[in-house]
Each structure stands twice: as structure tokens, then as C-alpha cells.
Amino acid sequence: MINADESGNPVNPADVGMDPDWPGETLVTVLLTEENGKTKLQLRQTVSQELAKRTGAYPSWLQMLRNMQALLDQN
Q1: Where are the domains of the chain?
Q2: How does DSSP assign 27-53, residue by residue?
Q3: Is residue 1 within 8 Å of 28, Cβ to Cβ?
């Protein structure tokens, strides 16, 4: 993931009000596996858990995953 403006141009995270420690580019990996008949999702991002929690990224991912689960449960 690259931090970008509305036109897709890369931006420095600190220049747009983000934590100055947040990198300009991160890699997000999502791994889906099946375990006991259920799908398991693992998400990894190339920032530390401490930084993700401090900046709000960590709870944002949890919220997005909960919303996704709620949508899947409706079907």
C-alpha cells in the first residue's frame, strides 16, 4: 500500500498529518486457510504492532474485518 492523494500520487505520510514514523509504503499480506471446516484469515502488515496501535491502523483493520464478517454472515 502506498500513501497517495486523491489522484494516486505518492505522498509523504507526515505531510498529510499521519504519524511521522508511518512509512510511505507498506505491504499487507492476507492469508486465507481452512481449519476444521472454517475459513481462517491472517493479516500481516509491514509495520510494527506498536505503531499500528498508536496510529489507529490496528483497530481500523479489526473494524474492517468485523464489518466483512457481518456481511458474510448475512448470506
Answers
A1: 28-73
A2: -EEEEEEEETTEEEEEEEESS-HHHHH
A3: yes
CA distances from 61 to 36, 53, 58, 66, 68 (A): 25, 10, 5, 9, 10
- Give dist(CA 17, CA 3) in Å, integer: 12
pLDDT digits (tens, 9 = 90+) for 33-71: 999 998 888 989 999 999 999 999 899 989 998 998 899
- Residue 27 clears pLDDT 90, i.e. is over it: yes
CB-hemisphere CA count at 13 Å for 16?
A: 12
Specify the DSSP element, H or E, that contains 65. Answer: helix 57-73
Taking the alpha carbons of 68, 70, 74, 75 in that order, is the dihedral positive or negative?
positive
Q: pTM above 0.70?
A: no
